[in-house]
């Protein structure tokens, strides 16, 4: 743990950098910083130990005000406590696909990222090492210079059937331990509250996140960045005792795509795209029956399928990423066929739309939600249909569920790029037009990819920290 | 109304007044009935040879204890799920390994006991 301070103690100093938030983006930015800086990490929530979280089931879930005009149920999931959503994530850690960074040049959709897969590759590797990521079998599509830190979890019977059929099925990369200092993952299948603390979290990795000169202030909300003469000079905070200011030479917001936008809006950052375009992937579960399917895999989500991920279809609609589940498992009552059922999740990419936005509402905020883009819905429908043709013979759909209410991957509220007129944040995650103000996290993603965002947002934060001189 | 309230109170009092032996007998009957229901349910899916195993009986007794006081469960479906996740029934059927049962799989109360995870894979399952 970092040494902790009271607000009065924090206010008595001038900090080189103030970081808001204490989850992935905040911690990997901190890791990237040059040595010798004085850093204050300000966290809105409190420190709840892993044991306390398991015992109480409480993690301070944010009630997110939303004006939902989409006609579909919609949720957003953010937890305000030390370590943020690293406490409840499932630790699925794929890299983005090289094409995800070039959607406009390749398919005329969305925007290109201001960097590409190769630029991010060394940072991906570093974060994978920090999280003890395991994986394998994907190098022909997601190239890597060095092997995964740990070998892939054992596959299920279903994975073996699929992998024998095509080399576009492989092990899902994960930070659910298969080697390394944390307990070996044993397929309990309740990863949002892993009972044995196997998956990576900020709380179980504090010793590796240590930074000489970093202090922690908890139960204190950053309300706004103080901006004077075009530069960030500190933050305005609120805690149980009231409001105050803390001074610093630079401020980095790592409070996720939603709260970063809210803080920037409150700070007076005036940009037509700020808060605009909030989005996330949309997903659906599919059940497949057939001979040879079954379990006995090493973790909860064991496999990934990329056959329908990338290709010319992305000019018209999203592709789908397929995830195979080992636990929780689906079973069949049919004699002798008890485990011959596979639960697969298919995930489609969304596009940022101007009518999905975060706006201030007095002292508070609200998400104006018009719905996922047709690009995502059409992709999901296409994926459901096309999947049947890419499965091995003998496997058939048994059924599917309604689309899930959230993938819990909010993004796109302060997108990055080099044009200050179109982008809120520059390629190094600095807010255009404000010196010393960083906005980290998936809020910067110009397009959403089909894959889980956290490895990528962590690699970007690490890279941004490295650029600080 | 007053009279109804009186009856309700007095019947509650009668329950409280049951001796420990009576309460145990009552619970024992409920357990036995639950075991029968779950056994019948499993017998629709599993062959007689599996149903005849001593470990199946041990499982059914433990499962009934596990499920009895949980009105939120569909006990028969739960028995089916837990038979597959808490015993070596798949390995038993496929490779002739002994059918064994140790604990009802529960991710929180008995973590790492998922018998459909790699830790309990049938012999040879993951040989290259
Ligand atoms: C159940 C679940 C499962 C998930 N599984 C996966 C997965 O398998 N793979 C994957 O890639 N992603 C997954 N995600 C998404 C992942 O959790 C997020 O992408 C990731 O946590 C974002 O990191 P972050 O640091 O940007 O923000 P967060 O983790 O949201 O952390 C934000 C931090 O900022 C703090 N904060 C908020 N407002 C303020 C304020 N005003 N002042 C100070 N502090 C503040 C919060 O308390 C929190 O600590 C999952 C999410 C959920 C909910
Ligand atoms: S599968 Fe189980 S052990 Fe592995 S991370 Fe999830 S809950 Fe933890």
Automatic annotation (TrEMBL), chain A:
Keywords annotated in UniProt: FAD, Flavoprotein, Oxidoreductase
Keyword Flavoprotein on entry: yes
Source organism, top-level taxon: Bacteria
Keyword Plastid: no
Cofactor: FAD
Domain named Glucose-methanol-choline oxidoreductase C-terminal: residues: 404-461
InterPro entries xrefs: FAD/NAD-bd_sf (IPR036188), GMC_OxRdtase_N (IPR000172), GMC_OxRtase_C (IPR007867), P2Ox-like (IPR051473)
Cited Gene3D superfamilies: FAD/NAD(P)-binding domain
Coiled coil: none
Domain called Glucose-methanol-choline oxidoreductase N-terminal: residue spans: 82-279
GO MF terms, alphabetically ordered: flavin adenine dinucleotide binding; oxidoreductase activity, acting on CH-OH group of donors
A Pfam family: GMC_oxred_C
Similarity field: Belongs to the GMC oxidoreductase family.
Protein name, as recorded: Uncharacterized protein
Organism per entry: Maritimibacter alkaliphilus HTCC2654
TrEMBL record, chain B:
Organism superkingdom: Bacteria
Keywords tagged on the record: Signal
Signal peptide: 1-23
Protein name: Glucose-inhibited division protein A
Keyword Signal in record: yes
